[in-house]
Amino acid sequence: MVVDLNPAAIREVADGGGRGVFGDATRDPVLEAAGVGRARTVIVAVPDAAATRQVVAATRRLSPEVTILARTRYVREVEPLEELGADQVIPEDFETSIELTLRALRLYGASVAMISKERNALRAEHYGALRGTQPDAAVPILEALREAAELGRIVVDMGCHAENWSLRRLAVRECTGATVVALERDGSLQPNPSPDLELKAGDVLLVYGNGEQVDAVRTLVSVPCTGTLDGEPTPGTS
Questions:
Q1: Domain of 220: which CATH number?
Q2: Which of 22, 38, 64, 191 has its CA 20 to 30 A from that of 159?
Q3: 61: three-class secondary structure by DSSP
Q4: Which of the four pLDDT bands, split at 50, 70 and 90, describes residue 115?
């Protein structure tokens, strides 16, 4: 059931087989006409902050047991909306930050399970870790990634050893222990590139590893990998 002040939106809902109520959701009669007393969940997605507070307060007053999810643009609105009765408040600015963080984790080669755990940690206690209301809250996976290694940026120069070689043939992981998590080509970023992708002059490799491993990749891009050290391939000259 959709409540909206835009008649075109209500018509669109009806045309799609849904149900809608034309009216102001801050008013009790409109919410009652929409069946708020029978609802299990009410989602408040109003762009105006003051109207969002009014809808949340009216909904809680009319239906003490209903679950209320509210979207807000700014984090400063989280606590007022919770005090008015919202069960969960989703601030757009934090959700944007979370999405950027998760995409960075993907570039670092994080697993799906790790990313899911990180998302849950960042959303825990109503974004307490990000809002500063949990001073002791930690983000262990992010901290471990940051402290354990770095993300190096390595350019494939024209005429260098790696030009026209595939990532599989270059054997970055086997030779250096580092991981190529993305490749930038012509301004386009390719996360987790195929091992059969042939490198071209001007490509930029984003490599995850400790300092020595990243430096070894820089050498490997210019110098072929020959010989072994304790059974592992090592960069060398040819």
A1: 3.30.70.1450
A2: 191
A3: helix
A4: confident
pTM, to two decimals: 0.48
Q: How many domains does the chain have?
A: 3
Strand order in the sheet with 150-155: 150-155, 204-209, 179-185, 188-191
* Full domain range(s) for residue 199: 149-235
**CB 13, CB 2: distance < 8 Å:** yes
11 and 72 housed in the same domain: yes
Mean pLDDT of the chain: 81
Pairwise CA distance, residues 64 & 175, whole Å: 63
Tokens 């600015």 belong to which residue?
Answer: 93
Residues 127 and 169 in one domain: no
Per-residue pLDDT of 167-176, as tens digits, reads 999 999 898 9
SS3 140: helix
